[in-house]
Amino acid sequence: MPTYECPICRTKLEVASPEEAPYRPFCSRRCKLVDLGRWLSEEYRISEEIPETSEDESKSGEEPPAGE
Ligand SMILES: [Zn+2]
User: CA distances (Å), 49 to each of 2, 43, 44, in order?
Assistant: First the structure.
């Protein structure tokens, strides 16, 4: 009988056939959604970490006041 382990809750599962485990490699729909949520939150975290480097360039473009 094939067995697998849910990567979310580490539950060991035994299935007689792949048809009996529609949420593989997860044990249930809940764990599948948890994994999906982790993926989405990781992507949000990466897109938020954009370094601000073009801030200094606008300051150096100013011309010094011309003295008469
Ligand atoms: Zn699980």
Answer: 42, 10, 9
List the shell of residues around ion ligand 1, using CB closer than 5 Å: 6, 8-9, 11, 27, 31
Is residue 52 domain-resident? no
Q: What is the CATH number of the domain that holds 9?
A: 3.30.50.10
Ligand 1 mean position to 46 CA, how many Å?
Answer: 26
Walk along the chain (68 residues) and give the pLDDT tens digit of each residue: 788 999 999 999 988 887 778 898 999 999 999 999 999 988 777 666 667 776 666 566 667 787 77
The rounded Å distance from CA 8 to ligand 1 centre is 5
